[in-house]
Design goal:
InterPro entries: DUF3431 (IPR021838). This is DUF3431 domain containing protein. It comes from Clohesyomyces aquaticus. Keywords: Signal. The structure is a single chain. The chain is α/β, with parallel strands linked by helices. It has a domain of 182 residues: Alpha-Beta Complex (Spore Coat Polysaccharide Biosynthesis Protein SpsA, Chain A). Helices cover 35% and strands 9% of the residues. A 5-stranded mixed sheet has the order 2-1-3-6-4, with helices on both faces. A two-stranded parallel sheet has the order 5-7. The longest helix has 30 residues. The chain is globular. The termini are far apart.
């Protein structure tokens, strides 16, 4: 065989072996080091939003893979009466699961064993009935879109819930959906000083000590209890499950058996939810901190610890007039103080 042919055959063999070696490397890489499933998660956005980014392209079309992997369920639990309307939640928050209870309708799909204790009976009934299958994030709220205690310049629940920071909830476990201190903070109830008093029909101070001792047997009664009103809050499944189911059964049994008026038993729970979910007796973060972390409204002007300019102002009455927000208490026309978004 001529010399140049031997070199040509050798070169061809070397090239073939090199190609096979490279192909083997690519095969091993694909088998042993698979590429990541999607972009890294951004800590500034909720897991729901990030999962949607991972499973959908920029055009909105679903990408390959399971769309529910790692996605957390968010649900609302609503305490309502037949005369009240919570359908706005379906319109504006279709992505959330809805649990609309009718406390005064025994034939409703979701109702309570007895209409006592106001919204607390609904909240406890939901937890007990769903303890082993709770959604990941839960918002416990009242039904109407416009309510005097909603933390919004127009008392509008829509922007309040739209701005609620789910990532902050997932970090904290429990978050009150209200920042203004008017009613509740810094110390609404003084259980030891006020024991036995009945100075106002809506104030539970006179009965709080007895209620606290029944709900939390063996625990020292705090001297001060403070949290911004009015029993609208959020909690994660993990936070709820920190307590055994028997605790929630105990709480509801107390509600069912107490001779206290609904306005008082419900109020005792209003100032106990933060304790149930692990906060101290006085849970009153400054309004500036609360608005920033809870609603993403940072940089507000807050001359006082419990209020910020342009946010919540306690209304003159505990009900809103017909035609609100476009009509005031005197029937006069009014402009919205804040956007709906």
């Amino acid at each position: 065989m001529p010399l140049h042919r031997r070199f040509t055959a050798r070169n061809a063999l070397i090239a073939l072996l090199a190609w096979l070696f490279v192909a083997l490397l690519f095969h091993l890489k694909a088998e042993l080091w698979p590429s990541p499933a999607g972009p890294p998660l951004d800590p500034n956005f909720s897991k729901d939003d990030q999962q949607d980014t991972i499973t959908h392209g920029k055009d909105g079309k679903k990408l390959g893979g399971s769309p529910t992997t790692g996605k957390r369920r968010t649900a609302v639990v609503v305490a309502s009466q037949k005369k009240e309307n919570a359908t706005w939640l379906d319109e504006y928050f279709p992505q959330w699961e809805k649990n609309i209870y009718r406390v005064d309708d025994s034939s409703a799909p979701l109702t309570v064993p007895e209409n006592k204790g106001r919204e607390s009976m609904v909240y406890l009934t939901f937890i007990l009935d769903n303890y082993d299958k709770l959604p990941d994030n839960l918002l416990f709220i009242h039904p109407n879109r416009y309510q005097w205690h909603n933390d919004d310049p127009d008392y509008d629940g829509l922007p309040m819930l739209r701005h609620f920071q789910i990532p902050y909830l997932e970090k904290e476990g429990y978050v009150n959906i209200r920042c203004a201190w008017s009613l509740g903070c810094p110390a609404e109830i003084k259980p030891l000083e006020e024991e036995g008093e009945h100075r106002a029909a809506v104030h539970a101070g006179g009965d709080y000590k007895e209620g606290y001792e029944a709900l939390f047997p063996g625990k020292e009664v705090p001297k001060r209890v403070g949290v911004s009103c009015c029993a609208q809050f959020a909690a994660t499944k993990e936070k709820i499950l920190e307590r055994p189911k028997s605790d929630y059964a105990h709480y509801r049994n107390w509600l069912l058996s107490t001779p206290l008026d609904d306005s008082i038993s419900g109020r005792i729970f209003e100032y106990s939810w933060h304790l149930i979910f692990g906060k101290g007796p006085v849970h009153c973060p400054t309004a500036e901190e609360c608005y920033c972390k809870t609603f993403g409204r940072c940089g507000l002007q807050c001359p006082e610890s419990g209020s910020c300019e342009g946010r919540y102002v306690l209304p003159k009455f505990s009900t809103l007039p017909d035609g609100w927000p476009l009509r005031g208490w005197g029937g006069e026309q009014r402009d919205r103080l804040g956007p709906e978004e």
